[in-house]
Amino acid sequence: MATEILMPALSPTMEEGTLAKWLVKEGDTVSSGDIMAEIETDKATMEFEAVDEGIVGKILIAEGTEGVKVNTPIAVLVEEGEDASALPTAAPAAAAVAEAAPAAVEAPAPAAAPAAPVVDLSPDWPADAEMKSETVREALRDAMAEEMRGDEDVYLMGEEVAEYQGAYKISQGLLDEFGSKRVIDTPITEHGFAGIAVGSAFGGLKPIVEFMTFNFAMQAIDQIINSAAKTLYMSGGQMGCPIVFRGPNGAAARVAAQHSQDYAAWYMQIPGLKVVMPYSAADAKGLLKSAIRDPNPVIFLENEILYGRSFDVPQVDDLTIPLGKARIWREGSDVTIVSFGIGMQYALEAADKLAEDGISAEVIDLRTIRPMDTGAIINSVMKTNRLVTVEEGWPQGSVGSYISSVVMQEAFDYLDAPVVNCTGKDVPMPYAANLEKLALITTDEVIAAVKQVTYR
Amino acid sequence: MAARKTAKKPNVSSEELTTYYREMLLIRRFEEKAGQLYGMGLIGGFCHLYIGQEAVVVGLEAAAKDGDKRITSYRDHGHMLACGMDPGGVMAELTGRIGGLSKGKGGSMHMFSKEKHFYGGHGIVGAQVPLGAGLAFADKYKENGGVTFTYFGDGAANQGQVYETFNMAALWSLPVVFVIENNQYAMGTAQARSTSTKDIYHRGEAFGIPGEIVNGMDVLAVKEAGEKAVAHCRAGKGPYILEVKTYRYRGHSMSDPAKYRTREEVQKVREQSDPIEHVRELLLTGKHATEDDLKAIDKEIKEIVNQAAEFSKESPEPSVEELWTDIYAEVG
Asked: Does B327 sit within 8 Å of A232, measured CB to CB?
């Protein structure tokens, strides 16, 4: 039976090419692997091999022809004894091309003035729960210990997490309770151990990876994004990665440029990741427990300065807080201040001082950056009509700039002033004490921003 | 240095030899068909063919037990077929259709099968090496006796994370076989131009990991070496390195004009060391099979591949809803 040889696509972008040279002539016998022709693509001159055996019955496109479209018949192979002259001449075999015309996807109509979004305002714990003052450090350790007690597959891995009891003492006591099989000191090799942890999650475990700080996770970011975040999608839903990457993030004090960076905006961009950045001890505990149980990779951004700070923590069995739910820390009517992590400290201080000036600020702690509870923000903006965001990270591509775009698209008609983003300064973190102070966000800057949007 | 080994008078059954012949032939014919479909524009993007390297994965699969795991790079079609994944599902993934093993969302470089313990299909050179050690970590943690085959190329062997992994795999005695598929070219760069050592497996010695060179054009030699490596891992002695010398006949990917080596070099390997011809000869000279028997197998394989190709063309493209699924697993 005669076989048409079609002009091949020889690169991901090739649509046509030049048939530079025939290396066979009519009547030649070819077998699989023999070079038949040289074809010039947009990138290179490629040799084109025969796939089937046969006799070259007819050459349909002469050598030197330019602009030969992919899938045009260029020759015909016949079997022994077959008559080549009876063959039809070139008929475009365009039907063989995948008709990849996608169904038109309707663009979402821009929502003009939205109805109030549905927001989960349920309390995180019973109102009558007994409260006890605990540090964020204790809350994080208790969260890990409780989850490790409840699930044999949960383990902790990282630099100095076991015998040293944690570089910041977050894993204090865990080695004693769970042993060296489940609390594992690694060499200083972030890329490697992050990859091993992700592989172990593919293999059915639920790792908690502690980065001594998130600055060092840049060594491992390929494994976090390309391996942990994307595999569920790439596998068509077959293989997920239940893992928590946690550790201190952002500026500590006087540790300079390479140890003082806020990664919230970096990880926030990645579909497949969840990103949590708690402020209070109760949230740190409840969110970390939820993160460990979550079947997806979770980036859990802590803060060294907050580790030693005490907050009231409800004394309930199994405190969990759902990821993706913001918390209204303080209700107000004149302006909405949205923050997360240590930024909350400035937001809350500013709200206190603004109250003295008669400005009532509503303060929202996002707690989870991705998925983001944008409904809670919009709901609040519909009431206050003014918005200020507060974070320690840099301005360009900040969490605040994303929030601004969402609010502009979904609640533009409710804004009485442009949104202001308070961020860290657009500089690497300096070491000198006076300069470091200037580089960070301050309460006074938040107050000034609020006055700007309230025209006071 | 270990000499290149070829199994002597092979002490192997007809059935076993026929199985290897059939499995290697399936990979070759499948890859030829994939090349053809790429040429027709039915497969897009990058497509890295395994032609020439068939004996590596077929030999090692013969040394694996149920429950053992495998993970590899983007040159992965052969590994999928060898561990029993459906050729139609693999081909339909190449054409980006809903019938593909990743519903068309992964493509040539990203396929997975929980059922067959195949963990991908990874597109970042070397990234699968710590992942493979992590799978072995999970096996050791669960004390299930499993071994993981972690495949990577001579090019990946220059990535830093490979040596980070060697260190931890040795330190923690992880049951992982590191398989260096040395096809001698990292894309277009010959090994001698990229790698300071002649034999890459020697680098394991710095971490206390034993290893050896294997003739990757001889499926029986590969299987024998694989059995030794697996026994080492299962005995709790930690990782083992197999540097399997092999050769790819085609370019690095479909768009590689392969000007970095001569046509004669490729032709010489094809004529003198082809892994499929080798088994074919063993079958015929050992009177395990007749020409007619082999012709029947060829025909049967051709039929399987044609059916896979048909399925890959007929299976519809994924529905537009698929764009938004499988990004997050549901919180249970």
From this structure: yes
Same domain? For A173 and A268 the reply is yes
Q: Which residue has the tokens 């074809």?
A: A39
* Structure-token pair, residue A419: 């949104």
The predicted complex's ipTM stands at 0.95
The alpha helices in B172-207, defined as continuous H runs, are: 191-194
- Beta-carbon count within 10 A of B332 CB: 6
Name which of A60-74, A85-99, B55-69, B266-280 the model is least confident about. Answer: A85-99
Give phi and psi for A310, each to the nearest 5.
Answer: -100, 145
| Residues paired with B70 in a beta bridge | B118, B149
Q: Is residue A88 part of a domain?
A: no
Q: Is A190 designated active site?
A: yes
pLDDT of residue B9: 58
Cα B32 vs. chain centroid, distance in angstroms? 16
Partner-chain contact A97 B42, CB within 8 Å: yes
Domain boundary pick from A314, A340, A366: A314
Residues of A in contact with B46 (CB under 8 A): 12
Percent of residues in chain B assigned helix, strand, coil, to nearest 5 = 50, 10, 40
**At A97, is the secondary structure helix, strand, or coil?**
coil
Amino acid A11: pLDDT: 80
- Cα within 13 Å of Cα(A305), Cβ side: 15
| In a shared domain, residues A183 and A259 | yes
Which residue of B lies nearest to A35 if distances are taken between CA atoms? B263
DSSP states of A327-342: EEEE--SSEEEEE-TT
